[in-house]
């Protein structure tokens, strides 16, 4: 029995968050979350590139 989040569940979570934080804080929270994910993906990509470079030097 898995717990999958569908559209109704996601909308409910967003609605509750909007009520708790208010529109301005919610927008700031979303922007911060997006920036954090973007930085995380960038760091992962850099790590993969560095790993490939090190493997190329060993061969």
Total number of beta strands = 0
Secondary structure: helix percent: over 70%
**Low-pLDDT residue intervals, each spanning 5 or more residues:** none
Order of helices and strands: H
How much of the residues is beta strand, in percent? under 5%
Helix-strand makeup class? mainly alpha
In this structure, how is the largest beta sheet organized? none
Mean pLDDT figure: 85
Q: Rounded to an integer, what's the Rg over CA atoms? A: 19 Å
Oligomerization status of the protein chains: single chain
Number of helices: 1
Principal-axes geometry comes out as: elongated
Distance between the termini: 47 Å
Quick take:
This protein is mainly alpha-helical. The protein has one helix at 7-58. The chain has a domain at 23-59.
Topology:
Blueprint (H helix, E strand, L loop, with lengths): L6 H52 L1
Polypeptide structure, described:
This protein has 59 residues and is an all-alpha fold. It has a domain at 23-59. It is built from one helix and no strands. It has one helix at 7-58. It starts with 6 loop residues before the first helix and ends with a helix.
């Amino acid at each position: 029995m898995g717990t999958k989040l569908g559209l109704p569940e996601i909308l409910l979570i967003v609605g509750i968050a909007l009520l708790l934080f208010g529109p301005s804080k919610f927008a700031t929270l979303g922007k911060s979350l997006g920036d954090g994910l973007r930085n995380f993906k960038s760091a992962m990509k850099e790590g993969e590139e560095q790993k490939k470079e090190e493997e190329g030097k060993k061969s």
